[in-house]
From TrEMBL:
Active site per UniProt: 35
SUPFAM superfamilies: Thioredoxin-like (SSF52833)
Species this chain originates from: Sphaerochaeta globosa (strain ATCC BAA-1886 / DSM 22777 / Buddy) (Spirochaeta sp. (strain Buddy))
Name recorded for this polypeptide: Glutathione peroxidase
Residue stretches making up the Thioredoxin domain: 1-181
The keyword Oxidoreductase belongs to this UniProt entry's keyword annotation: yes
Gene Ontology process terms (BP): cellular response to oxidative stress
Record-linked InterPro entries: Glutathione_peroxidase (IPR000889), GPX_AS (IPR029759), GPX_CS (IPR029760), Thioredoxin-like_sf (IPR036249), Thioredoxin_domain (IPR013766)
Length: 181
């Protein structure tokens, strides 16, 4: 299976074949509207506006699996993001990123890039690590999505180039995006 073989659901429930993004640099993200990382929407929108004309697409997949931090309907989530952060990048239907009902997109992404580690310089890393270790002392060894705002960078040919955990600074992500554009 390749990335472009995967189908996702648009906000209206219609099927979207990821092949429509072939030739673009993609940043695929699982998001939540009630999370400590939610302010990243501002940085993501800035990144999108700066590079969309060069071929960047940001694909936003709300996920309610982490402490139910993405409550509400997709319409409510979209309205929240538009009003509070002015987001204009593509948002899709809510999905699951881990477990029995995980979407094939995230199964594929995780198979290509495992857990990248939390950035020790980020203010939230110690707490996340503590929370993860309490639940699973060997949490670093599996490829599951650990929290909201995990990002996958895809090159123009559909290759998963890098995985960024939510504690990765946007400046680092921007440098990697620019290199692919």
């Amino acid at each position: 299976m390749q990335l472009y073989d995967i189908t996702v659901s648009a906000m209206d429930g219609k099927a979207v074949q990821l092949s429509v993004f072939q030739g673009k640099v993609l940043l695929i993200i699982n998001t939540a509207t009630h999370c400590g990382f939610t302010p990243q929407y501002d940085e993501l929108e800035k990144l999108y506006k700066q590079y969309k004309d060069q071929g960047l697409e940001i694909l936003d997949f709300p996920c309610n699996q982490f402490k139910e931090q993405a409550p509400g309907s997709i319409e409510e989530i979209n309205q929240f993001c538009s009003l509070n952060f002015g987001t204009t990048f593509k948002r899709f239907a809510k999905l699951e990123v881990n477990g029995e009902y995980e979407h094939p997109l995230f199964t594929f992404l995780k198979s290509k890039k495992g857990f990248a580690g939390f950035n020790p310089l980020h203010e939230k890393s110690a707490r996340l690590t503590e929370r993860m270790r309490a639940a699973d002392p060997e949490f670093e060894k599996d490829s599951s999505i650990k929290w909201n705002f995990t990002k996958f960078l895809i090159d123009r040919s559909g290759v998963v180039v890098e995985r960024f955990e939510p504690t990765t600074f946007m400046s680092e992500i921007e440098e990697k995006v620019k290199a692919l554009l």
